[in-house]
Amino acid sequence: MVRVSVVIPALNDSAMLDRCLSALAAQTRLPDEIIVVDNGSTDDTADVARRHGATVLPEPLRGIFPASAAGFDAAQGDLILRLDADSVPPADWVGRVVATFGEEPSLDLLSGPGTFYGGSRTVHWVAENLYIGGYIWFVGLLLGHHPLFGSNLAFRRSAWERLRGSVHRTLREIHDDLDLAIHVAPDMTVRFDRTLRVGVSARPFASFAGFRRRIRWAFGTLELNRRERSYRSRRAERRAVQRARGAQAR
């Protein structure tokens, strides 16, 4: 049996976390382990997690990547699934993820989009079409492989063990999913399934300041990694590996 761990970083998100954990409890294929990484909450986030039977892992270093990485390190599953505290997965989410990895032994990382809830229709359109849609298009073009969306993400533990030493896991003002996508090894297989959706809160886009902060972090993540290595060389290395694989297959 494949063991499944779900990691949820959280900071003062008790109400939304309660909804997320209730959705996980209603899965047709239950996860074997749920880890809620408490990133210094002052509300009852940790109590809510324990009430649902989740393991609470404190992480004092603030930031989405420090919290997520701590959870990934602690996870015991063969597959590590990542949600945000405001994610609401449909009942078949875990089952579909497990089935996809079972059907594709070469698959290393899997992601999908979000269906936004809360806020106005205009906010939803901006979030889904400009932010997520633009992100999917741009990252795919920049890196030469599919993007990763942190609110709806899964990967093999073996993939994290390979990548954990190269990502910027201790930095706060970066997007962990974008940074992880940038560091995907050239021989790894990534898939973005547009039908694998989870509910995601539109609250980050409810104000211009929130939207601007996400954009600033995105450009900061891109620039940080560009200074270390050009994206052209990353794409070239990936294409070379793919060509070699194709030649071997023939």
Structure description:
This protein is an alpha/beta fold and 250 residues long. The chain has one domain (4-249): Alpha-Beta Complex (Spore Coat Polysaccharide Biosynthesis Protein SpsA, Chain A), CATH 3.90.550.10. Helices cover 47% and strands 16% of the residues. It has nine helices and nine strands. The chain has helices spanning 14-25, 45-51, 64-74, 93-103, 121-143, 157-163, 176-182, 208-228, 231-249; strands at residues 4-10, 33-38, 55-58, 79-82, 109-111, 114-117, 153-156, 190-192, 198-201. Strands 3-2-1-4-7-5-8 form a seven-stranded mixed sheet, sandwiched between helices. The protein has a two-stranded parallel sheet with strand order 6-9. Strand 1 (4-10), helix 1 (14-25) and strand 2 (33-38) form a beta-alpha-beta unit. Helix 1 (14-25) runs parallel beside helix 2. The model has no long low-confidence stretch (mean pLDDT 94).
